[in-house]
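Form 7-S
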Amino acid sequence: MSTFVLVHGAWHGAWCWEKVVPLLEEAGHEVVVPDLPGHGEDGTPISKLSMQDYADRVVRAVDEQAEPVVLVGHSMGGIVVSLAAEARPEGIKKLVYLTGFLLEDGKTLISVAENDAEAIVLPNLVPNEDGSAFTVQNVKDVFYGDCSDEDVEGAKARLVPEPAFAFGTPVAVTEGNFGRVPRVYIECVQDRAIGIRAQRGMHERQQCETVISMETSHSPFLSAPEELAGHLASLA
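Output:
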């Protein structure tokens, strides 16, 4: 059995894994689901945050475990798990990118998003008054195209503004640390937040040892939790 650390993406919180966690636990795995600072139940003001704070939170979660973990990052959480792997490669058995941003050293989220003709996130971003954070409109189309109305409404009520730094902070990783952790990519074919061509471009450039395809939107933890949990368990 394995220990999983599941890292949510932008705007979301640990709550997004609530259907997946019991399935993994029933299969005998330990599961840790941290809220990134300023998300979910963590009320840290976004003005005090940085991408390093996100990574530090995940590194602490890794350090608290008794064994190397399977570290899963969804969407923007892919950047966070890459940074955690750079800091603690010995604490991570496997990196899993769930339709996640798997970026090369020096690249930014926005550099991928701006060239993703299939995605509809950027046209649906709504900045706050000073441009320091963004919310998303039309979230069903963007994130939850194959989710139930109940799940969509529940998610909408818990989304929070995402600081602008998440889009423009360059990833800093090396082959000696991040590069030695085995990588898996779970692509979501119907995703409209990160188009399938963009997903495939990332995992082809970064040489993942395994690629799994799901015929879902951006949020299989809501629309296909049993299938997702099965894929994760198979990687353990």
